Amino acid sequence: MGTLDLSHLLTAVRTIVADDLMPLESTFLRQGFSAVLPQLQAVRRKVREQGLWAPPLPQVHGGLGLALGEFAQVSEELGRTPFGHFAFNCQAPDIGNMEVLLAHGSPEQKERYLRPLAAGTIRSCFAMTEPEHAGSNPVWLSASAVKDGGDYVIDGHKWFTTAAEGAAFAIVMAATDPEHPKLHRRASQIIVPTDTPGFQIVRNISMMGESGSDWLTHAEVRFEGCRVPQSNRIGAEGDGFVLAQERLGPGRIHHCMRWVGISERCLDLMCRYAAQRQLSPGRPLAMQQVVQHWIAESRAEINAARLLVLDAAAKIDAAGAPAARVEISTIKFYVAGVMQRVIDRSIQVHGGLGVTDDTLLSFWYRHERGARIYDGADEVHKDVVARYVLKGYGIDTRG
Ligand SMILES: Cc1cc2nc3c(=O)[nH]c(=O)nc-3n(C[C@H](O)[C@H](O)[C@H](O)COP(=O)(O)OP(=O)(O)OC[C@H]3O[C@@H](n4cnc5c(N)ncnc54)[C@H](O)[C@@H]3O)c2cc1C
């Protein structure tokens, strides 16, 4: 896409976010996601009619075929409101599942699972993390997929399976070769339709910043003797972690740019409030040096965060996610931290109003705390960055 076209696209996206989505936020804050769902469905129709649907998907699948660096900029615009990505059908975890199916799905899998997902008529989930094992070490899994005739029989216990409630299928990480000498070759990703006998949602886990039943849920799930054809495996046997790495690279770009969008919105709220709130007649809050410093620090950090993410996206576009390992880990912990500091400063500037549910600030303060944990906790990503840096000094941090 040319520069001019991209700038038109960004303007069109920004207009829909401002005119159609932001006006729904106060109802959402008071009554929850289900209260705004009918209007969101109407916005989804409008997005599709305007040819803006599913921007990162290829045109043949109804999308715009944006490169990652281009979609990153769209993602920032969408991130300014809590439902931007949903309205444009590029929300996690569906977009990650679409990307995996697109790159590695068989023609039958594309027809049966990718096509309705891309059309937005079904939803999906991704089940890797298990309660019994540290999610930070994902090669350590108990879920198993045992061959029986032409099928796999899957047994496993997962949690934090985002959006399992209402999903038509799960992509499950399960061991297909539990004795393989290479730990990262033991598991595969397998599609399990959620109406498969033995698939069971144990509970939707009550989470900070989630209203539980009507926003994206995070489920504890059991797979008990779930029988699916071997043709439901995505990619080759043992490819599970390779696919997971591929998925998480672009996924972190999507998340990080959403967080840049959230940060921009919070800085905007901070500045508006500081400019209009009077500490005494004729003296706005913005005249306090401490507030000015918070604004300056936020401006600098957001700009730096955006450039880091766009740099990582450009590297992935040019050479693939494995080549951008350090950049991906750097943005994951850095941008999450920037977002949290900016949200916090904005709350402080708003005083008591900041901790009410009258603005988005307290929602984002709670909801986005998970950013420092999911898709790899901060500490894990700092380990990766330090490992690569210290390699240049003859130190193997894993030694
Ligand atoms: C909102 C949300 C959505 C999620 N969605 C999904 C999903 O859709 N599908 C899915 O499969 N999973 C999902 N997860 C799970 C997520 O990926 C894991 O929570 C994450 O990988 C961390 O694993 P854990 O919770 O088991 O923490 P653990 O691995 O037990 O780690 C606990 C803490 O230990 C510390 N730690 C870990 N490793 C190191 C280290 N090397 N050095 C120093 N400290 C370390 C970190 O501070 C970490 O927070 C989601 C989680 C959240 C919060």
Task: Give an overview in words.
By secondary structure, this protein is of the alpha+beta class. Helix 6 runs antiparallel to helix 8, helix 8 packs parallel to helix 10 and helix 9 runs antiparallel to helix 10. The protein starts with a helix and ends in an 8-residue tail after the last helix. The protein has twelve helices and ten strands. The protein is globular, with a radius of gyration of 22 Å. The strands form three sheets. A four-stranded mixed β-sheet has the order 1-4-5-8.
Quick overview of this protein structure:
This protein is of the alpha+beta class.
Count the strands?
10
Quaternary structure: single chain
Return residue spans where pLDDT drops below 50 for at least 5 consecutive residues. none
Mean pLDDT: 96
As a percent range, the share of strand residues is 15-25%
**How many whole angstroms does the radius of gyration measure?**
22 Å
Biggest pleated sheet: 4 strands, mixed
Task: Name the strands of the widest sheet in spatial order.
Answer: 1-4-5-8
Total count of helical runs of at least 4 residues? 12
**Which secondary-structure class do the elements indicate?**
alpha+beta
* Ligand kinds: flavin-adenine dinucleotide
